[in-house]
RNA sequence: GUGGGUGUAGCUCAGGGGCAGAGCACUUGAUUGUGGUUCAAGUGGCCGGGGGUUCAAAUCCCCUCACCCACCCCA
């Protein structure tokens, strides 16, 4: 019995239509990154496991259960890009060279989660990192850039949520506060949160269960946990966004699931997506370099989920260039068809011919189906006089033209068409 | 990792122990060498896989796999 092959669980094949959006997202991103003076990095899909344990955090779900391990080695398929970029920076001692850097990357990430809408085991990130400055202007730049990229492919319905966790001390203070305040009501939290309250209290305020949500809301969180410097940083960022008239929602209950975030965290969500509603997210990570290399280097960045952007875009306008189809009336005209096609293509005219043994009627039907704007019909009668039939499909008109004039006439028609 | 749902033609799905179905799509026709609309005919199935019950299973039972959605988590 023949085995039926299909794609691996949690992966998707990009159809030509999806790829069209992907390419458009990719091109627009590269253009924007260039304009903002970022440099592209292409790093391996394989990294040492411990890079992510130290970077992303031992208690996070990504590290606990979602990393895809390479058999027999302490090597994993990368689950995210930030720790890797930091590894690159440290490995190449960029702190000694030009310490301030802006990088972007586009490529696949891997997480061994159970797939659902908007959640895959292999998915693509478009991400950026700014390394070497703690300026709130750069927090703003990163947010702006993420929004612009999403905009560039025509995704206008989206929401920006933003919060500040504060520096490492502030985070500890906030965690302690949450722990103390929730201790009495611990039994009313979900079992998951009861565990988290000890290990990672910040995650509790992010829980989406209604009962936890209710309790957490009563904490009345605000900016009080922030030290003067961090408060200043956050307020300045918000006023930049205000001045740019960017819509955002301050959400004091927004936490990111990766341990490395400090200060600014943000999330861009879309209502088009279902339960995995984040198109992208990011924030500041002023402690990650310390974790991985013992250096005190501030940084900020974001990542967008390519497949989620594609998912959220229900339609995209595809405007292909005019297509010319070559049809043969009669048998034995393949060689002539091939030579006409070659000439068309050498003149950069988008053209096609199916070379199947089909009747003229069937060829025209196929030509129609693939969206041909013009059809060249090769007929023995006309070819004797070095002529061909040129048919305008939309107008249902045709004329006989000199083979020598064909390219010139077609180019003229195509120009009018566009 | 946990729950719920769904697997029948290329696609969307109906059928629910006794001949394998519809719509769309596809192929071929409807006066010599001309597309879209229309009309006609045709191709196409291990009814996800394995086992069981039965004279008989796409249908009932068990197992399994895959997909979808949700939880969780994240982009």
Helix-strand layout with pairing:
Layout: H1 16-35, E1 39-40, E2 46-48, H2 49-56, H3 61-66, E3 68-69, E4 75-77, H4 82-91, H5 94-97, E5 101-110, E6 122-131, H6 136-152, E7 159-164, H7 168-183, H8 191-199, H9 210-217, H10 228-243, E8 249-250, E9 262-269, E10 278-284, H11 288-293, E11 299-305, H12 306-312, E12 324-329, H13 334-346, E13 351-352, H14 360-369, E14 374-379, H15 380-384, E15 387-392, E16 397-402, H16 406-417
Parallel strand pairs: 1-5, 7-8, 12-13, 12-14
Antiparallel strand pairs: 2-4, 3-4, 5-6, 6-11, 7-9, 9-10, 10-11, 14-15, 15-16
This protein binds one RNA strand of 75 nucleotides through α3, β6, β10, β11 and α12.
| Major sheet strand order | 1-5-6-11-10-9-7-8
**Count of separate DSSP helical elements:** 16
- The CATH superfamily of the largest domain is known as Bira Bifunctional Protein, Domain 2
- What percentage of amino acids are in beta strands? 15-25%
Please describe the biggest sheet, giving its number of strands, its sense, and whether it closes into a barrel: 8 strands, mixed
Query: Over the alpha carbons, how many angstroms does the gyration radius reach?
Result: 28 Å
Low-confidence residue ranges: none
Instruction: Report the average pLDDT across residues.
Output: 90
Distance between the termini: 52 Å
CATH architecture descriptor text of the largest domain = 2-Layer Sandwich
Can you give the helix content as a percent range?
25-40%
Overall form: elongated
CATH topology assignment of the largest domain? BirA Bifunctional Protein, domain 2
Number of domains: 2
The count of DSSP E runs of length 2 or more, i.e. the number of strands, is: 16
Q: Which structural class is indicated by helix and strand composition?
A: alpha+beta
CATH domain class name of the largest domain: Alpha Beta
């Amino acid at each position: 019995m023949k085995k039926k092959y299909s794609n691996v669980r949690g992966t998707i094949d990009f159809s030509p239509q999806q790829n069209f959006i992907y390419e458009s997202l990719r091109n627009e991103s590269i253009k924007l990154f260039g304009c903002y003076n970022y440099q592209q990095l292409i790093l391996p899909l394989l990294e040492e496991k411990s890079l992510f344990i130290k970077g992303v955090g031992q208690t996070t779900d990504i590290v606990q259960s979602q990393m895809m391990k390479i058999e027999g080695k302490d090597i994993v398929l990368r689950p995210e890009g930030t720790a890797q970029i930091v590894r690159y920076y440290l490995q190449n001692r960029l702190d000694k060279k030009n310490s301030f850097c802006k990088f972007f990357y586009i490529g696949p990430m891997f997480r061994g989660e159970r797939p659902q809408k908007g959640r895959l085991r292999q998915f693509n990130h478009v991400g950026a990192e700014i390394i070497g400055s703690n300026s709130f202007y750069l927090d703003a730049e990163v947010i702006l850039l993420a929004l612009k990229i999403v905009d560039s492919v025509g995704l206008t319905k989206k929401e920006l949520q933003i919060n500040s966790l504060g520096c490492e001390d502030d985070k500890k203070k906030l965690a302690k506060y949450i722990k103390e305040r929730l201790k009495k009501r611990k039994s009313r939290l979900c079992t998951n949160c009861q565990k988290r309250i000890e290990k990672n209290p910040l995650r509790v305020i992010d829980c989406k269960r209604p009962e936890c949500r209710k309790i957490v809301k009563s904490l009345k969180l605000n900016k009080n946990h922030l030290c003067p410097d961090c408060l200043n940083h956050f307020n300045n960022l918000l006023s930049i966004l205000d001045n740019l008239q960017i819509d955002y929602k301050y959400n004091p209950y927004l936490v990111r699931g990766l341990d490395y975030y400090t200060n600014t965290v943000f999330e861009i969500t879309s209502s088009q997506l279902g339960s995995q509603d984040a198109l992208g997210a990011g924030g500041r990570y002023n402690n990650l370099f310390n974790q991985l290399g013992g250096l005190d280097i501030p940084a900020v960045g974001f990542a967008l989920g390519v497949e989620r952007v594609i998912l959220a875009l229900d339609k995209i306008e595809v405007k292909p260039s005019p297509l010319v189809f070559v049809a043969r009336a009669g048998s034995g005209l393949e060689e002539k068809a091939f030579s006409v096609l070659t000439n068309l293509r050498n003149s950069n005219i988008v053209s096609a011919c199916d070379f199947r043994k089909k009747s003229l009627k069937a060829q025209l039907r196929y030509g129609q189906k693939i969206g041909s704007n013009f059809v060249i019909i090769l007929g023995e009668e006309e070819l004797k006089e070095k002529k061909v039939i040129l048919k305008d499909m939309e107008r249902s008109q045709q004329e006989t033209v000199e083979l020598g004039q064909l390219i010139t006439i077609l180019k003229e028609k195509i120009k009018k068409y566009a």
